[in-house]
Amino acid sequence: MKPSIPKGTRDFSPIEVANRSYIMNAIKMAFETFGFQPIETPSFENSATLMGKYGEEGDRLIFKILNSGDYLAKAEEIVLSKKDSLKLTSQISEKALRYDLTVPFARYVVQHQNEITFPFKRYQIQPVWRADRPQRGRFREFVQCDADVVGSPSLWQEVDFIQLYDTVFTKLGLVGTLIKINNRKILSGIAEVIGAQDKLIDFTVALDKLDKIGKEGVVTEMLSKGITNEAIEKVQPLFDFSGSNSEKLSSLHSMLETSEEGIKGVEELRFVIDTIAQLGLETASLEVDVTLARGLNYYTGAIFEVAAPKSVKMGSIGGGGRYDDLTGIFGLKEVSGVGVSFGLDRIYLVLEELGLFKTVDLPTPKVIFLNFDATSDIMKMKALKELRKQGVKSELYPDLGTSNKQQKRQWKYVASREIAFVVSEISNDMYTLKNMGTGEQEACDLRALIEKLK
Amino acid sequence: MKPSIPKGTRDFSPIEVANRSYIMNAIKMAFETFGFQPIETPSFENSATLMGKYGEEGDRLIFKILNSGDYLAKAEEIVLSKKDSLKLTSQISEKALRYDLTVPFARYVVQHQNEITFPFKRYQIQPVWRADRPQRGRFREFVQCDADVVGSPSLWQEVDFIQLYDTVFTKLGLVGTLIKINNRKILSGIAEVIGAQDKLIDFTVALDKLDKIGKEGVVTEMLSKGITNEAIEKVQPLFDFSGSNSEKLSSLHSMLETSEEGIKGVEELRFVIDTIAQLGLETASLEVDVTLARGLNYYTGAIFEVAAPKSVKMGSIGGGGRYDDLTGIFGLKEVSGVGVSFGLDRIYLVLEELGLFKTVDLPTPKVIFLNFDATSDIMKMKALKELRKQGVKSELYPDLGTSNKQQKRQWKYVASREIAFVVSEISNDMYTLKNMGTGEQEACDLRALIEKLK
């Protein structure tokens, strides 16, 4: 029996855990600096809380937990005999693993609305699970780092979130991220102008391919999806959509002037863009991208997505937006929310590829007491006790080694764990301390030993 | 639809997350100070990794994950028609949620044995899930904090772990914990002496009731379980098992002198007890308890359990022991391991009951900019940007409030979040800063503002 783990999941070694903590701490510190407070929700929710919130595809990708005990007792015979998996699921499973942090957060807000002061700024850093096909940057268990505000329609939040992205990526040394921004109302305006609400996704998907297949290719695809020539004519400016953000905004403004909602979207976007222009960003840039449509189902205002620096091939490393009525699904109406998410696992891959982890410290002991001679054991343990009290990471090699071979193994252990100092010998109450970097060696008493190491 | 969460799971509010982090950090720091390195394993494992490792009861309590897609396709018709839940499980579920951290760790060690330097000292702080009946201190999702060493039979580890418990509980201000210690070999010795290997658990369970039901009650229970009068006679000393640890050890030594294994257990225990006596403990005490038998199935040497201070009613808040062949189940033979676990959720309840959380800081902003006047918005945002760069937790009240009522709401928000400083007004480039504790107010320029707050 060769042990293994499920597809799409990972073990993390000490160095990987340290690197992941480094990223999470940077994000956590930034969240708190921006005034967000942490909450946590259970790993599994009642299925009713999650099902139907992420579309049909989402429902399929949610991991369901089998009921305990004699779970078939309540199952209908007809469903069993027909082997109807879809129908049986709700009869034998009442719980499911968290699919994202947004829906559980909405559930939390509604459930705890009487304990919460609004606007409520919360962050949440927890794993989520999706039965997706694993590939580079896509796992079945991965960590999301979300910050959201509910209870305020103010566009200052959008400004804050863009600065938050810039702050985190700057802190991680990740220069050159691209924050793409769009507004759902602009997309609605486009749909209005082209007279085809239901073709909006086909439209943005086709438009997104402009770089790859050129204007002609995009038009062909749009026509094939049933978008009329006349409609395409009306949004001509989108086919030469370049220049500065303010040029793009002007172009959108004239294109959408017949759509009240479209114009509102342009104005919202303009406010955010102009404010960020005045405040400046450290390392990120901000770019209007009208093809950005992520999860159209719940965004109602701003839509964000962050791309890694161009030199790295990786899907988005963050995203988010405004949803005017997320808590409505749980019965609390008209509470506007806006939030962003950081994809820890992808950020990890990007930092690794760019060699940006070099500064992370492994939690390795600073000093080890080798074990060549049992007579001084108590002296070693007493020294260890003092060192640890002072917070010095330290340990005793546990097994006594009297032969050459055994002692070699202890030195090998020191090297492999990259331990900086070694106490190899103790005599007359003096500890022989060796600096493994320089090779220097000196004898010192307990007090001097602690002074040197703390 | 009233939102709720599954039985035995919990939401954690900001203050609860902060308190939990405080405990986890204390444990993590102690683990690292003692030379342990972190690893993490997936939340779910292949069922084959977990099933059969925790006894029949354990198998029942493991949460199973339903396969994705048309999971019934592979199910046998006969099993479905018989509604045989037990048999069907393995046909429709291949993965299960982690039940503890020890078995996944054993799996990790075997799977990664070529990347690991032994002795391998790892710690792991992650949630585990059990479909247990929820009650006070028992949840279906809870966090375990484990430290283990594999690859060394040295008793110094046992000494280290007792000191580790003492260090953590001292740091948390939890005075008066009781570390109970036993040794599996002593239990085997007792079984040998009473001539009833198979009655060992009945014996320890009965003996454990000595305080409650008295000697006579215990003897009656033992007899009812088929333990002979003659056997009971041989272990008379256990019925007056009091006095110091060394008195207990002497008594065990004479009682078990016919059992080689029993004597070995006494000697091991004596080494640990004597060494700890020489080193001293800060706030915990160490006590030999021969009724301690926790999970007999894999412990082979020392057995630990920690009880909260007597004033608090709570099950054990930690436990562990030595297992000589844990990795054997995954094919790596003769690797000795020893480890302990801290029960985060119970430690939380104990600290809460004793009022020991008072020092924990909530991640709340230090300063907020109120929003009474839109004209100075950019000045506020610029100040915020600088403050945050200096790491000062700070935010803007997002919604403009011009009416009395709206402004009152902003002050209420300040009070409810316990924010220490407020900038309520800006004029002529001067910020009016109010100290909410003293009520003092002063006008300062941006530089002075940052100096005061950072």
From TrEMBL, chains A, B:
Signal peptide positions on this chain: none
Aminoacyl-transfer RNA synthetases class-II family profile domain segment(s): 1-363
Keywords, comma-separated and alphabetical: Aminoacyl-tRNA synthetase, ATP-binding, Cytoplasm, Ligase, Nucleotide-binding, Protein biosynthesis
InterPro entries according to UniProt: aa-tRNA-synth_II, aa-tRNA-synth_II/BPL/LPL, Anticodon-bd_dom_sf, His-tRNA-ligase, HisRS-like_core, HisRS/HisZ
EC numbers for this chain: 6.1.1.21
GO biological process, one term: histidyl-tRNA aminoacylation
The organism's place on the tree of life at top rank: Bacteria
Keyword NADP: no
Principal subcellular localisation of the protein: cytoplasm
Pfam family, one: tRNA-synt_His
Sites where the protein binds L-histidine: D100, L101, T102, R130, Q144, D148, R294, Y298, Y299
GO molecular function list: ATP binding; histidine-tRNA ligase activity
Subcellular location: Cytoplasm
GO cellular component terms listed in the entry, alphabetical order: cytoplasm
Record-linked Gene3D superfamilies: Anticodon-binding domain, Bira Bifunctional Protein, Domain 2
Reaction(s) the record says it catalyses: tRNA(His) + L-histidine + ATP = L-histidyl-tRNA(His) + AMP + diphosphate + H(+)
Enzyme class: ligase
Family to which this protein belongs: Belongs to the class-II aminoacyl-tRNA synthetase family.
PANTHER family: HISTIDINE--TRNA LIGASE, HISTIDYL-TRNA SYNTHETASE
Subunit structure: Homodimer.
Protein name from the UniProt record: Histidine--tRNA ligase
Gene source species: Polaribacter irgensii 23-P
Organismal lineage: Bacteria, Pseudomonadati, Bacteroidota, Flavobacteriia, Flavobacteriales
